[in-house]
Amino acid sequence: MIKRVFITGGTHGNEACGVVLAKHFMASPELFSGFSFDTTVMLTNVASIGTNTRYVEEDMNRCFFKADLDDPTKTATLEARRAKELNAVFGPKGTSAAADFIIDLHNTTAATGVALMMSPTDELGHAIAAHLIALDPSVKVCNWNATQADWPMLPSVGKHGMTFEVGPVPWGVVDGAVYKQTRRLVLAALDYVEAHNAALARDGPWSSSTVQVHSFVRSVDYPRDASGELAGVIHPQLQGRDFGRLARGDPAFLALDGQTTIPYTAPEEEVEELFPFFINEAAYYEKKTAFMLARRIDRPVQVAKQSPQYELS
Amino acid sequence: MIKRVFITGGTHGNEACGVVLAKHFMASPELFSGFSFDTTVMLTNVASIGTNTRYVEEDMNRCFFKADLDDPTKTATLEARRAKELNAVFGPKGTSAAADFIIDLHNTTAATGVALMMSPTDELGHAIAAHLIALDPSVKVCNWNATQADWPMLPSVGKHGMTFEVGPVPWGVVDGAVYKQTRRLVLAALDYVEAHNAALARDGPWSSSTVQVHSFVRSVDYPRDASGELAGVIHPQLQGRDFGRLARGDPAFLALDGQTTIPYTAPEEEVEELFPFFINEAAYYEKKTAFMLARRIDRPVQVAKQSPQYELS
């Protein structure tokens, strides 16, 4: 049973749709009453919300490795310390006390639409995704790197969890359409958790389904000159095409002369088709990531079927 | 005659298209050879480029009032000090030594397209605008507040100058299409300056033209609650509609419930039609500006006619 749910905003303080939505949820407890579980809404990187920056000293959404949380000497940055505080609230990670489900609200400057980022092994996360895709077919699912044993992202502290990544939105901006869509889908996710609890309580019915998943493979950097400065930018023909097909030889970058196209080159041995996402995310210039690439797979998942007692809205 | 031209980028360090374009221009001096005037390209708020923020201590594009530049005690912030350094390079403001023409490269998260912001009295600025509109009819002209005797923006230091404002682009992002369009039009502006010098040298020919100008009238804030927090965001129907018509009663904001529309209300005595711009500019949340409003007028301007000696490209 899902008993303790957390909705968190401001893990990146300049991702303003999520911050404003979290504040709205905190001021609207009636939205979370009547469920079979408790929902707590909170702001996480409060310092970076105050400065309207992604982070103050370190990207907090890379501070939640279990080894770092458990290491008492990992306190060098404001964000490392805050991650430990948060781990005490909705963790400790990897223990039976950890929150059952965490939704962490994010925005990206990339045209991802609503992209739900989660562990490849999180069955509930994928069931929620299946429900949200049924409501809004534009919703995408991404899996964190499947070759890792642990992940450093905030929602990984919970037994289940997801990054609710929505774009495109500039830093510091609340886009009305994105805000409205996110609000609706987050509340619908809680509706599904309620249906999940109901199905658990009566042992069903469950339905077999599949979810299309974009599974992280690798990142691609911008072209750079000898001193590491940008030598090209995302090509206009690739801009905004997150989750579309990218074939070898397609325009990927535009050189700074504004005219020369730099095509996408994949390693020769790579024969499978990959799909770009996080194209031109502002925060990833410093991470040397122009876009990420995913393989696309269909993942089976068991979902709680609707019942007369609980009609999904 | 125009002898000294400056192209400046990074007055707001996170407006990355302008920063990257200025760096490209600095690395490409051949683009500025063969003209009858000298062109210097430089980065202005270097500290804020380093932190990828609009400013470090104060908005530098409000530090160029002549009274502040001339006041030796106005040195409290990094930006106030840097403004004085820059004034020594391409000023001093209001003197015969000041640069003849300054193009300051900016970006906005608002869907302004290319908007040229200038003094209402700058004849050369408007002639350049007329030329650029002939090349690209999407170019818009905005005038700074006509009721002021002086302006605090960087290009106001020159005898002529303009803010080259281009959007929508998120902070920290280089958008390929915006970059390409900006690069082309900045170089075309220099072509016009060359034609202007040639026309001055031979006393013509000049042609009478008009330029559509958006003249700043007032700013409109977001709806806010009692504690000053946002109570609404730009309505999806207004988002991206910069320089469109906004009538009394049109949707302006969406309340945080994601459903309630808050209409645009104009003072009763305001009978003229106004046009919104800078809709949802990220940096203006803290300035309590959801959008600005302009009246639209046709301004006469004298432009250098093309000649066999100098074909405008």
TrEMBL record, chains A, B:
Molecular-function GO terms, alphabetical: hydrolase activity, acting on carbon-nitrogen (but not peptide) bonds, in linear amides; hydrolase activity, acting on ester bonds; metal ion binding
Residue sites binding Zn(2+) per the record: 12, 15, 106
Active site annotation, chain numbering: 165
Domain AstE/AspA barrel-sandwich hybrid: 210-295
Residues of the Succinylglutamate desuccinylase/Aspartoacylase catalytic domain: 2-192
Family matches, as Pfam families: AstE_AspA_cat, AstE_AspA_hybrid
InterPro entries per record: AspA/AstE_fam, Aspartoacylase, AstE_AspA_cat, Aste_AspA_hybrid_dom
Keyword terms of this UniProt record: Hydrolase, Metal-binding, Zinc
Cofactor stoichiometry and binding remark: Binds 1 zinc ion per subunit.
Domain of life: Eukaryota
GO CC annotation: cytosol
Cofactor: Zn(2+)
Keyword Zinc in annotation: yes
Listed NCBIfam families: PRK02259.1
Entry's family note: Belongs to the AspA/AstE family. Aspartoacylase subfamily.
Protein name in UniProt: Aspartoacylase
Organism of origin: Chrysochromulina tobinii
